[in-house]
């Protein structure tokens, strides 16, 4: 863990893996050191903002070093967000071919995993979910699409996610969901905040489900 100064009221913590980001972010949320005002996780960092009237970088470094490690719980949390998916994406067959799996096996592996929101970025409400089965990890597409529809469920590298609104994108599209995951008029506007547990559930053809 490397702690770097970031302006007069923040430090940037660098770690080596996405799992370490989740563990650090979870520990800081559970027992925030005195003076911490905001946490911003990313792929390999956590930005920690603090009130200079209550602490300083040196005291914060000491508190961070004393944080107990936390691990994601093995059991599914009660507040897990369950996302119904129609696995009808245009890249499903290609993902199966490139991973050496059948399309059914791709779906089974994608729905079997327990995911957690590591961080948000790229566009409002776009959550990067960790926990993807290693067999489904593929580099981003060589040719990004100019427009991916809202609700597209996709994978790329070590992440899976849902496009919350129409946008360009280079991830592999496995399917789609009608669940509303970003609503600028709601409070909070997204269901998928950092630390949120997520499961994907295969949706039967024609089945109904709740949307926000």
Textual characterization of the structure:
It is a single chain. The chain contains 4 helices and 13 strands. By secondary structure, the protein is an alpha+beta fold. The strands form 4 sheets. Strands 1-2-4-3 form a 4-stranded antiparallel β-sheet, with helices on one face. A hairpin with a 6-residue loop joins strand 6 and strand 7 (127-130). The relative contact order is 0.17.
Topology:
Blueprint: E1 2-5, E2 10-14, H1 18-30, E3 36-41, E4 45-50, H2 57-65, E5 81-85, H3 92-99, H4 103-112, E6 115-120, E7 127-130, E8 145-148, E9 152-156, E10 159-162, E11 167-169, E12 172-176, E13 197-202
Parallel strand pairs: 5-13
Antiparallel strand pairs: 1-2, 2-4, 3-4, 6-7, 6-13, 8-11, 9-10, 9-12
Number of helices: 4
Oligomer designation = single chain
Largest sheet: 4 strands, antiparallel
Name the helicity range.
10-25%
Task: Supply the helix-strand structural class.
Answer: alpha+beta
Question: What's the pLDDT, averaged over the residues?
Answer: 89
Q: List the strand order in the largest sheet.
A: 1-2-4-3
- Uncertain spans, ≥5 residues at pLDDT below 50? 71-75
Cα(first) to Cα(last) distance is 39 Å
Number of beta strands: 13
- Globally, the shape reads elongated
Helix and strand pattern: EEHEEHEHHEEEEEEEE
Which range does the strand content fall in? Answer: 25-35%
Rg over alpha carbons = 19 Å
